[in-house]
Amino acid sequence: MGNESSGGQAAIAVAVQAGIDVCFANAGTTEIHMVEALDRHPNVRAVLGLFEGVCSGAADGYARIAGKPALTLLHLGPGYANSAANQHNARRGFSPIVNLIGDQASWHLEHDAALTSDIDAIAGWAGWVGRSTSADNVATIVAEAIAAATSGVPGPASAVLAADHTWEAATSALPNVELGTPVAADSALIDQAAAALREPGAVLIAGGRHLSAVTKRAMVAIAAETGCGIWAGRHASADYGAGAELPELPYFPEPLIAALEGTTTAVLAGVTEPVCFFGYPDTPSQALPADAARMPLCGPEHDLDAALVALQTAVGAADVPSPNREPVARPSGELTSATLGQAIIACMPDNAILVQEAITNRAALAPHIANSVPFTQLNGTGGAIGGGLPMAIGAAVAAPDRRVVSFQADGSGLYTIQSLWTMAREQLDITVVIINNRSYKIIEVEAQRAGLDPGEATRSLLDLDRPEVNFAELARGFGMESARTTSAAELVDLIDAANARPGPFLIDAVI
After folding, report:
1. pLDDT tens readout for residues 328-361
2. Where are the domains of the chain?
3. Strand 156-162 vs strand 481-485: parallel, antiparallel, or unpaired?
4. Residues with Cβ < 8 Å from 135, sequence gap 6 or more?
């Protein structure tokens, strides 16, 4: 049962061979031999999440910063199902995740025990799924999952491993496996896009996995040379504060459609064409004019930086000098959405990682971004809330030399509040700022947009103040130091102090 050459040992060994060195885990009985295998590979950092949605969200955040996958270790179908919302976000963000999902012993499946389920069906909607057939086959299935997660369009991939295949002896040699890499864009498409962008009404829209400072500077130069419009996809992760900021496509349908009105050709880099987040009465789903030409330049499987630099060369655009940066003033007075967003940017450490799940309060960051120090921002990509706190864990594990700032809405933070325990246990350098407005504010906004007059039943489903949640006390209960404030000046002092110290700290910002 504890064989040095077990299937479980082979699974971890092949992941190590591919360069994977982190596993976010919430294991059970069927994964106990995988846990033993991790114990025998101390070069793989095992991080416990108290909920599987923490594990999948952390793996998403890790992949976005590290540029390679982490493992998750999940307990049968229900364990994967608990992780599904953040698997969805990872799929939409093109984040490679390799899920190791334990299953019943192969000879026990037919008895339909209580925890038995159709894991292939549950996990298959998010990406590739493979299933072990023997102990000798385990390493091959894991290698195939690694290849599937990182090759072509990246995303989650799952290896379903029967418990007996992880404890039985494996005698086969490990298969060769390498992480996939982005591919080059078609040079002919680059030339076609260069010509199209000089035409009246042309726009260049970029997004996908990540909008780096390189891509942004290339887009600003292209726009200066051709006169085309430029837009950043709303949900892409991005670098900020490097002197080349892009306007971001609006969230709500009316301003989104208005922003793209008059477009004749849309060159799409790393993204498909923009559509409205939801369907609304008498509103088109597609944001581009119906008669606009759609010109795909490259997809999320391509090297976006290389494609945009090549496009800049093709149009003959010189680099545009970066504008002067004025330090963002530190706010004082009343703590409002506006002063809260200003404080986050004003106190941003150089080269920090901002994980924002601020929902309605995200707009408060925008006026100050151009004057920020350089930082990387991770956004929710799939719209499934509860990804922010786990992504902060993954980002901090991936980049222990960078401070992580989590700008987190209260309602969505409660979905994966167990993340605070993992932050405290691992002593991760994370500053959590909770936007405590005591409501699901975005739903209130949508109700107003729909012309509804909320009654008592509606209000009871939207407010979070009966009873009010005290996040500072919650954090202390999970072992994290914390403070509560209602003052902008005090908030600034707390953020500065938190960012300057090692380990995690939570600020409950009541607005």
Report:
1. 999 999 999 999 999 999 999 999 999 999 988 8
2. 7-167, 187-315, 337-510
3. unpaired
4. 6, 7, 10, 164, 165, 166, 167, 168, 169, 170
C-alpha distances in Å from residue 185, one per residue of 195, 196, 208, 305: 16, 17, 14, 10
Decide: residue 230, CB within 10 A, 0-12 exposed, 13-18 middle, 19+ buried: buried
Concatenated DSSP letters of 439-506? B-HHHHHHHHHTT----HHHHHHHB-BTTBP-HHHHHHHTT-EEEEE-BHHHHHHHHHHHHHSSS-EE
DSSP structural state of residue 370: G
CA 195/CA 205 separation, integer angstroms: 16
Low-confidence ranges of the chain (pLDDT < 50): 1-3
**107 Cβ partners below 8 Å, 6+ apart?**
164
> What are 501's two structure tokens?
């110290």
The CA–CA distances, whole Å, from 221 to 130, 186, 191, 213, 229 equal: 45, 21, 16, 12, 11
337-510 CATH = 3.40.50.970
Q: Scanning the structure block, which residue is given the tokens 């494609």?
A: 307
Query: Cβ distance 397 to 47 under 8 Å?
Result: yes
The whole-angstrom separation of Cα 17 and Cα 32 is 22
- At the fourth CATH level, which superfamily is domain 7-167? Thiamin diphosphate (ThDP)-binding fold, Pyr/PP domains (3.40.50.970)
Instruction: Tell me if the domain spanning 187-315 has CATH number 3.10.20.310.
Output: no
